[in-house]
Amino acid sequence: MKPDAVRGHLDGLILAVLEDGPRHGYAIIEALQTRSGGALELPTGTVYPALRRLERAALLSGAWSTVGGRERRTYTLTRAGRHALAGQRAEWNEFSAVVDAVLRPAAGRPAGGVS
C-alpha cells in the first residue's frame, strides 16, 4: 500500500489499535501490520511522531515502564481518544461510501464511457 494512502488516516488507525488496550510503540506498529494483513508497514519515523502528537492532544496517555531492562512508553486511549475514534469512524464511513459511489459502475451505464 502506498504510504500516501494512509495520510490523513494514521491517527484513526492508531486510536483503533489502542481500543483493545494499552500498547508500547513497537507493539502499535506490529498491530497495524497484523490487522492490515501486512499491507501497512509503517516506519517508526511515521508512527512515533503521531503518538507524541496524539498524546499532546490528550487523545492518548503515555507512561514509561521498564521491560527486560529497556524503557518503553506505553500508550492508552483516553476518554477523549475514544470519542475521537468514534468521530473518525463516522467520517471514514461517510467518505468511503462517497468514494465507493463514484468508483462503482452504475447499473445500465457503460463502465468506461459517457452515457
Features:
single chain, 115 residues, alpha+beta, three-stranded antiparallel sheet, 5 helices, 3 strands, 54% helix, globular, Helix-turn-helix transcriptional regulator, WH_DNA-bd_sf, Tscrpt_reg_PadR_N
Descriptive report:
It comes from Pseudonocardia alaniniphila. Residues 14-86 form the Transcription regulator PadR N-terminal domain. This is Helix-turn-helix transcriptional regulator. Pfam families: PadR. The chain is α+β, with helices and mostly antiparallel strands and 115 residues long. The protein is 54% helix and 16% strand. It has a three-stranded antiparallel sheet. Helix 2 (10-18) packs across helix 3 and helix 3 (25-35) packs across helix 4 (44-56). The longest helix is centred in the C-terminal third of the chain and has 25 residues, at 79-103. The mean pLDDT is 89.
Let me know the largest β-sheet: 3 strands, antiparallel
**Succession of helices and strands:** HHEHHEEH
Helix content: 40-55%
Strand order of the largest sheet: 1-3-2
Q: What general outline do the C-alpha atoms trace?
A: globular
Count the beta strands. 3
Low-confidence stretches: none
Tally of contiguous helical segments: 5
In round numbers, the mean pLDDT is: 89
- The chain-level structural class is alpha+beta
C-alpha termini separation: 33 Å
Beta-strand proportion: 15-25%
How big is the Rg?
18 Å
Organism: Pseudonocardia alaniniphila
InterPro entries: Tscrpt_reg_PadR_N, WH-like_DNA-bd_sf, WH_DNA-bd_sf
Domain Transcription regulator PadR N-terminal: 14-86
Protein name: Helix-turn-helix transcriptional regulator
